[in-house]
Amino acid sequence: MRRAMGIEGPFWRAIAVFRLASLAYAALLVLRAGGYARPAVAWAVVGVMLAWTAVTLVLYPAARRGPLLAADLLVTVGCLLVTPFAQSRGDVLAGAMPITATWVAGPVLAYGVARGRRAGAVAAAVVSAADLWLRSAGGVDIASFPVNGAVLMFMAGVVVGHVARLAREAEERMRRAERIEAAGRERERLARGIHDSVLQVLALVQRRGAEIGGEAAELGRLAGEQESALRALVQAPPVVRPPDSAPPPGLRGRLRSPARPRRALAREETSRHVTNTTTAEPEADLRDLLRPYGTARVTVSAPATPLPLPAESAREVAAAVGAALDNVVRHCPEGTRAWILAEEDGGAVVVTVRDDGPGIPEGRLEQAAREGRMGVARSIRGRVADLGGTVTVTSSGPGTEIELTVPARTPRPGEGGERRS
Q1: Which of 53, 42, 157, 154 is nearest to 96 (CA)?
Q2: How far apart are alpha carbons 124 and 379 in whole angstroms?
C-alpha cells in the first residue's frame, strides 16, 4: 500500500489490516464448512476477494476518489450476492454466514474515511440491503432475521467517518497554528532588525531635533510620529491566509504564472527543504564577533580557547550584546563604563554584559514592553529565546547586569525561556 500522507494514514492502515483479517476469517469459514455445497464456487469467490484485497492495498489511499470507491462497493456486493451459488438452502436456513463474512465492511469503512459519515452510512445501507435481499431470497423470514450485523455496519460507517473528519480538521488546525507560529517568528526577527536600525535612528533624530530647536524640532517631531507608527506596525499580530482561500487579484498572475507551474514550484520547495535539512550549518567563534565592541569604555573579556556556536546563533548573540550596549549609551550618563564577559559553562555559552550606570527602575522593563519599546523584550530576550537560551536581568542599585545563556547547539523554536531577577 502506498504511503498515506497526513493524519489519514493510520485509518487506511487499519482498514488494510481489517481487510486481511476478514479475508482470513472468510477463508477459515469456507474451510470449516468443507466448501459448502459447491466448493469450487466458494473458493472462486475467496480468490476474487483475495485479488481485490491486493488491489485495494495498492491503490488506497492515493486513489481513494469516486471510481475506486464505487468499484470497491460493487465488487464487495457482487461477492456477497454470489453466496447462493455456493451454499445450499439448508446452509442459509441454518444461519450460515455469507461467504464474504465480515469482509463486506471494507468499503463501508473506506467510504467513511474518504467521504465522511454520511457516505459511510450510505455504503452501509447498500451492503445491508444486499444482505437482507440475499436472506429473503433464500427463504429466511426477515421478521425473525437478526439485524445486529447491519446495525454494527451502520455504526462503523458513521463513527469512522465522523472520527476521520475530526482528524482532518485537527490536522488543518495544527498546520494553521504552525503557519501562525512561523509567521510570528519571522515578524519577531524583522522587528528586532528594525529596532536595531530604523527605530533607533528615528529616536535619535527626535531627541537631537528637540535639543537643537527651530526647524530641526519640527523634523524631530515628525521622526517621533513615524517611530510610534512603525512600532505599532511591527507589533501588530500576523495575518495568515487559509490555504484554501483565493489570493488577492493583484497576486494571482504572479502566483500562477505560466513560466513557473505549480509542480515546478513544489519541486523547488522540496529541493530547498532537502538542502536545508542535509547541509550542516557552519560554526563561528563568538569571540571574533564580540571583540569589535571593545572601546575605551567597553572591556571585552573572553577565554583563550574558541567559543564555537552555529554561525547564525553566534550572530544573534552578538546582536543581543550590541542591543544591550545600545541601551547603555541611550539610558546611562556620559562616561558610563561597560564590561562584556564571555565563557563556556557545561555545554552552554554564557555572555554577561555589565555596566556601572544608575540601574533599571523597578517595573521599567514591563512599562517599556507595553509602550512598544523592544530593546530588552525583543532585541535581547527574543533573540536568545529563539536560540533556546535564557536571559537574566539583574539591576539592584547602581549598575545593571544582563546574562545571556545559549546552548552550544540550536534547538527547535520554542525550547527556550527567560528569567528576570
Answers
A1: 42
A2: 60
